[in-house]
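Hey, can you fold this one?
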Amino acid sequence: MYDIVIIGAGPAGLTAAIYARRASKSVLVLEAMSYGGQIINTPDIENYPVAAHISGYEFATKVYEQAQALGAEFIFEKAVGIKDNGAAKEVVTTDNTYECKAVIIATGSENRKLGIENEEKLVGRGISYCATCDGAFYRNKKVAVVGGGNTALEDALYLADLAETVYLIHRRDAFRGDDTTVNALKQRENVKFVYNSTVTKLNAEKRLTSIEVTDKNTGETQTIEVNGLFVAVGRIPENQNFAQLISLDEAGYIKAGEDCITNVPGIYAAGDNRVKNVRQLVTAAADGAVAATEAVKFASAH
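Sure. Predicted structure:
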């Protein structure tokens, strides 16, 4: 019987493990793949307090080693379900079942991909899924944003203050996002709208050099020279294995506020898989601290 089982070894889960171990609770961290989550693929982090410049791999390794040194146990198995037995919980993996008093779900979310050739290879070399994370690298350069929701619109507006030119590419002739943001973008001389179009090819040498865009109505293609492409076509939260127990919103995110408390007593959500406005490395770490604090209280009371 563990005090706390944490599902996911990304920044939120690792931070939760540190806080829970510092409170002298027994902690098991379950991870389906590798520690670090998506941040491990980020070549440069420059917006995290104290660390002016660090790679995602180095950051993840340091946090993992810190949690491990404090005594957190790690098992690399995929969690596929949770059973709520009141004061006790069971976390079911593909191989085993683990009993605990409290659970923190920190499974994160995955960026929805365009699904075109070389997309994965060019991540960090021209392809990004986070404008606020990577926008500063494209100051006074040409970039494109693909997407039609609020995230894409806000990314384009953010980049318009940094980049020489921002191409906003959308597969329809009208945006799903707020009209206020659309109107603000239309006031920017360096923002170019590309409607009814999709990105169909990525051209690169060592880095992205241009993109091919195809008009959905005419089939015509054009090549746009850009240094960066920001993909904002949605995210996929990793919560489906817990949907029968934990309340999710229509997009699949766990309904939990800044206190990280879910609808089930003793089960908490931390990081990009919960409903929230800002999904950044620093907010994931903050969630881990909050969720662990709440889980420690629950475990101590039971």
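The chain has two domains: 2-111+235-301, 127-231. Let me know if you want another pass with a different chain boundary.
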